[in-house]
TrEMBL record:
One Pfam family this sequence matches: THUMP
Keywords carried by this UniProt record: RNA-binding
This protein's record includes keyword Nucleotidyltransferase: no
Superkingdom to which the source organism belongs: Eukaryota
Molecular function (Gene Ontology), one example: RNA binding
Database matches in CDD domains: THUMP_THUMPD1_like (cd11717)
UniProt cross-references to SUPFAM superfamilies, sorted A to Z: THUMP domain-like
Subunit structure: Interacts with NAT10. Binds tRNA.
Biased composition (Polar residues): 1-13
Record-given protein name: THUMP domain-containing protein 1
InterPro entries the record matches: THUMP_dom, THUMPD1-like
Organism listed in the record: Ailuropoda melanoleuca (Giant panda)
């Protein structure tokens, strides 16, 4: 009895590849000698936020970073394959020499792909992460913002904020505490000291608690030097904590409030008078008390008698003991003897109205 002959499986060239094969090939091309292609622990770089146009944001980031990077560190140097050492002609048949040459070519191609600035996947929408190599991100970004603050020259359209990231770790509280103990030493460990604040932002992460992170990091800063004090108005250092998925990005920056929270769109705006920026913001009156300006139109709507006065300085919810309220609906202020006749005019007019009615 003859056994059936098993035929080898025929390869059908007409069938399409599965989706998994395409994904694997795509990942292999991305990670082939070019370093990490997504945000992960152990990286340094620059975190950039944009407004709904990440591709344009990456282009602007490359242009801006290369401009100032060449200014600070010189032009970027590339490895030339022609300058790689090659074996002598007599050793072409030697297997060891051929192997060394192949390894050298692989290293050279890897160095060619590792650029000074390289965009990687951040893991969040409208956020771009630029991995840096051989530079200090905090010094470079501070130099960019300082120049834009002085010149008031706008150089970007879609980039909003540009935050340097000096280190990354896993976004778990124990990992962050262990990493921060050594990371924060250059700025806060005795004899170094300074005032500080902590800013926290979390994206695509739900297992971290903001209050716990700030409390733990503030405790670490205080343990490094007891003279480190919290200042939320104008701190010397700002500890930036940016969490994206399972990665925590840390940095310590200077002039955070001066450079408008490292916002490239706001830092180029000229400083205006506080009363023009926010009309409702209280300003200092002549006697040192907080007061606010109210237009005469609003006062005329409540009391037509006071329509002649275009502007008045009205104290903001301040009542001094023994102060007598005027009888008219619109408050009349006698601020250091300024226009004392207004109250008498209102009194006379009110009395005349009562006589007419009687």
């Amino acid at each position: 009895m003859s056994t059936p002959i098993q035929q080898p499986p025929q390869t059908s060239g007409g069938k399409r590849k599965g989706k998994a094969q395409y994904v694997q090939a795509k990942r292999a091309r991305r990670c082939d000698g070019g370093g990490p292609r997504q945000l992960e622990p152990g990286l340094q770089g620059i975190l950039i936020t944009c407004n709904m146009n990440e591709r344009k944001c990456v282009e602007e980031a490359y242009s801006l970073l290369n401009e100032y990077g060449d200014d600070m560190y010189g032009p970027e140097k590339f490895t030339d394959k022609d300058q790689q050492p090659s074996g002598s002609e007599g050793e072409d048949d030697d297997m060891e020499a051929a192997l060394k040459k192949e390894v050298g070519d692989i290293k050279a191609s890897t160095e060619m792909k590792l650029r000074r600035f390289q965009s990687v996947e951040s893991g969040a929408n409208n956020v771009v992460f630029i991995r840096t190599l051989g530079i200090e991100p905090e010094k470079l970004v501070h130099h960019i913002l300082q120049d834009m603050y002085k010149t008031k020259k706008k150089k970007t359209r879609v980039i909003l904020r540009m935050l340097p990231i000096s280190g990354t770790c896993k976004a778990f509280l124990e990992d962050m505490k262990k990493y921060a103990e050594t990371f924060l030493e250059p700025w806060f460990k005795a004899p170094n000291k300074g005032t500080f604040q902590i800013v926290y932002k979390s994206r695509n992460n739900s297992h971290m608690n903001r209050e716990e992170v700030i409390k733990e990091l503030a405790g670490i800063v205080g343990s490094l030097n007891s003279e480190n004090k919290v200042d939320l108005t104008n701190p010397q250092y700002t500890v930036v904590v940016e969490i994206i998925k399972a990665v925590c990005c840390l940095s310590v920056v200077k002039d955070y409030m001066l450079f408008r929270k490292y916002n490239l769109q706001e830092v180029v705006k000229s400083a205006k008078d506080p009363s023009q920026l926010n009309p409702k913001q209280p300003v200092q009156a002549g006697n040192g008390k907080e007061a606010k300006l109210e237009s005469g139109d609003k006062s005329s709507q409540h009391d037509p008698v006071e329509g002649k006065n275009n502007q008045q300085v009205v104290p903001e919810n301040i009542e001094e003991p023994g102060q007598i309220k005027p009888r008219s609906e619109t408050p009349v202020v006698n601020d250091g003897g300024a226009k004392p006749e207004l109250e008498s005019q209102v009194t006379e007019r009110s009395e005349s109205n009562e006589n007419d009615l009687s």
